[in-house]
Design goal:
Layout lengths: L6 E5 L4 H8 L7 E5 L9 H8 L5 E5 L13 H21 L4 E6 L22 H16 L3 E6 L2 E2 L6 H11 L2 E5 L3 E2 L2 E2 H15 L10 E4 L6 E2 H14 L6 E5 L19 H7 L10 H8 L4
Parallel strand pairs: 1-2, 1-3, 3-4, 4-5, 5-10, 6-9, 7-12
Antiparallel strand pairs: 8-11
Helix pairs in contact: 1-6, 2-3, 3-4, 5-7, 5-9
The structure holds NADP nicotinamide-adenine-dinucleotide phosphate.
The site of NADP nicotinamide-adenine-dinucleotide phosphate has 26 residues, from helix 1, helix 3 and strand 4.
């Protein structure tokens, strides 16, 4: 008896990562199902069950999240409803259909006090409600479906979303000087790269037994790690290279009194475990920054 054609199910298809996943070619011999609000509400188990009802073989990607890091401090219930309960609902529905799930988590599960890059075995200690809710999501998901790959990533940016490089681009076009923290270290990760890697590994997970060692928790973030200030300098340099008239990036310290969520000082992630398991290098964000800068200047 022949197997049904596998489906790559993208939940959250209109977010930053979801749009990149939707724009990629479908793996050979697969079909793709794109799901987004209002068609699916991940806070509602019945809605998730209904959306996955017809899928009998494939891999589910959870690209949904409550990502408003500062707002989450005063919107705890909704952050947990999406990031913890949503992850559990998707994992449960996927498990019922025998589908593995690829889920995205965050560097904000760490408190940032480590000297070097974080490994998967390092202790977690989120500083923010967002970080807490994402950590709770990892745990809820792992409890609901053993056939999971959790990818903790960081500082996600793309050519078509509101993100750090776009904000720096806009600020440098309008101001002579833009001060950026030089005491927050992390790994910028292009959503396009993340989407390519997720699409590449999905076929590896199809039909694997629940106890296969490929399932589990991984760090996957762009390299090299650097400070927000140094990242902004790279954006400034690229803008100049593209002939733009720009302001100058200046270093400053993080304001401890600033309203909103606390962010880890160092949340660099080591992706070695992922590289060894899937034989794919961590992506280099510098390869995609020029295309993003070009896109930020395009009024379309
Ligand atoms: N952005 C970063 O810097 C960063 C850093 C580390 C990790 N991550 C993780 O990377 C993943 C992708 O992030 P992203 O930047 O692509 O996020 P994003 O652009 O904010 O997209 C999140 C998507 O989730 C959808 N969503 C929210 N609540 C939902 C619900 N109840 N039901 C269905 N869909 C819902 C949103 O739908 P609407 O479009 O309808 O609002 C949105 O399209 C997330 O897991 C995030 O936590 C992001």
């Amino acid at each position: 008896m022949s197997h049904p054609v596998p489906t790559l199910v993208i939940i959250g298809a209109r977010g930053q990562l979801g749009r990149c996943l939707a724009a990629l070619p479908i793996p050979n011999g697969w079909e793709r199902k794109l799901l987004a609000r209002p068609e699916i509400d991940v806070t509602d188990q019945a809605s998730v069950d209904a959306a996955l009802e017809s899928v009998t073989r494939g891999v589910v990607v959870n690209a949904t999240a409550y990502t408003a890091v500062d707002k989450a401090e005063t919107d705890r219930e909704q952050a947990f409803a999406v990031n913890r309960d949503g992850a559990r609902h998707i994992a449960l529905a996927a498990a019922r259909h025998g589908l593995p799930i690829i889920h995205i988590s965050t560097d904000f599960v760490f408190d940032g006090r480590k000297g070097g890059a974080y490994a998967e075995s390092d202790p977690v200690a989120p500083l923010s409600v967002y970080g807490e809710s994402k950590l709770a999501g990892e745990e809820a998901l792992a409890g609901a479906n053993p056939r999971h790959v959790v990818l903790r990533t960081a500082w996600v940016f793309s050519r078509h979303a509101a993100c750090f490089p776009r904000a720096i681009y806009t600020a440098l076009r309008g101001k002579p000087e833009v001060a950026v923290p030089d005491d927050q270290i992390g790994c910028p990760t292009a959503a396009e790269h993340l989407a390519e890697i997720i699409t590449a590994i999905a076929p590896d997970l199809l039909d694997l037994a629940p106890d296969d060692p490929l399932f589990g928790l991984y760090h996957l973030a762009g390299q090299p790690a650097l400070s927000r200030y140094a990242f902004a300098q790279a954006i400034e340099a690229e803008m100049k290279k593209q002939g733009l008239d720009v302001g100058k990036v200046l270093p400053r310290k993080t304001d401890p009194e600033a309203p909103g969520a606390r962010r880890p000082a160092n949340s660099a992630l080591a992706s070695d475990h992922f590289t060894a398991a899937f034989r794919l290098d961590a992506p280099d964000w510098r390869t995609i920054l020029p295309a993003c800068v070009t896109a930020y200047g395009d009024p379309a």
